[in-house]
User: What shape does this take?
Amino acid sequence: MALRLLLLAVCTSGCLLRASVPMDKVEYAVNPPARCLVVLMPGAGSDMNDFEKEGFVAKVKASGLSLDVVAANAVFGYYIRGAMLPRVHEDIMVPLQTAKKYEKRWIMGMSMGGFGSLFYTMNHPEDVDGAFAMAPFLGDEKLIREIKDAGGLDKWQAPEAQPVDGDNYQRQLWRWLQEVTNDPTKTPAELWVGWGKEDSLAPADQLLGDRLPPERVLLTDGAHEWGPWNTLVERFLKEGPLARDCAAPVQGNTQ
Assistant: This one.
């Protein structure tokens, strides 16, 4: 309920409540043929086109990495209808991975899209090798305070694993985050998180960052907006595993 209210508050008139089938997407090829796939998940109040309009795609292109970049139109309407997971899986991930065999597959997004990236990874770990969540929404204030008051994620009393629904999705996400940060072998995916130091969601994100290896936590100046997110993705592409795994092949190299 808290996520729905939060996202409704940032929506403008007619705003992103649609949930077409199949889900739309925009594709960008960077140094083809691509070695790796990156799926982008928009934040609240944004759609697939904002990644290019706000300069995010330009940052990815400037990295020089060998990528297929796909911006999924995973707008708020899919979340409120409980359709985000099946539509991203059936309309984005499966067709892309059927058409081409990628060496690595990453999902990343900001705010709502950061939550969506982690939530998708929890539910479809077979589809991704890693997730980078920028300033992710991770739950309402009551739950965040409960985890903090417990002494952090490692000390928090998580619920039993249950089928996810509209009432328990926040606690089930945190239960999974506790499980995989305590034992990374519980998921094949590599988790990264980043946020602006002045971001209103920083206290919640810090609870996750405290349980990840320090090199997987990226901080920058700024609040909950595109400037810091562009900085974070630029750093991630330079410092993260894509720089190692998805470098453009040397010209003339047939491997």
Notes: The radius of gyration is 17 Å. The chain has one domain: 2-245. The CA atoms of residues 177 and 208 lie 8 Å apart.
